[in-house]
Give the backbone structure.
Amino acid sequence: MKPSAPLRVLVVDDEAPARRKVLRLLRQEPDVQIIGEADSGKTAVTAIQNLEPNLVFLDVQMPGQDGFSVIESIGTDNMPPVVFITAHDHFALRAFEVHAFDYLLKPFTEDRFKQVLRRVREVHARSTEHLASRLTEMLQALQKHNAFPDRILVEADSRAYFVAVSEISWIEADGNYVLLHCGTQNHTLRSTLENLQNSLDPKLFVRINRSALVRLDFIHELQPWFHGEYKVILKNKTELRWTRRYVGQRPELLRFA
């Protein structure tokens, strides 16, 4: 029997340690040919177009152009089979399962990786003619789910009311709660800053440190600080710190800063 052609694999992840882990595990597989790696959505699109992999390990959460945007840029008809890598998007996990896509949930074990690769080999040996329609259906489901809210329900004492997202200037972590700063009014919400960060449109809000999520158009001025950090001055004169860790998560915002 003629041996099957090796899997030509591209690995896409903006986090270098995660990328190295996938590459290390792939190198242990005799029928895998690693043809490249990419650390952003933009470089992933170029690599897919130029290298023509027949399997892509694709990180979902990347700053700027995320994994789903990569698929849209390539086009579902031209996208090779995908193993999605995700950190915490539970709805996305459900979508992958419903539409029969393999995924790795960070942090994943070596056993889980081998299980996924075993399934990939089985699919690779069969026809993948339905891949485009599955991708299209999944992206449509995700886009419908990921519509960003224009208001947030806040409960206080025995009443509940809506706060318009457009009125929020910045959000501050406060223990098991967050404080919504809306002009001269503040509203307390039982939630985590991470949950709100994942719920709000990243084109409007940016996480600048462990305790603050800021509306971009409420930033008055950025002043370079020490070690790649910035002092953030809001329009109401509030001063906050944009730490290096969070600067690294949204580098596209400071490309011309």
Notes: Helices lie at 16-26, 41-51, 67-74, 90-98, 110-124, 131-145, 193-199, 244-247. The first strand starts at residue 7 and ends at 12. The two ends are 59 Å apart (CA to CA). The domain at 151-254 is CATH 2.40.50.1020 (OB fold (Dihydrolipoamide Acetyltransferase, E2P)).
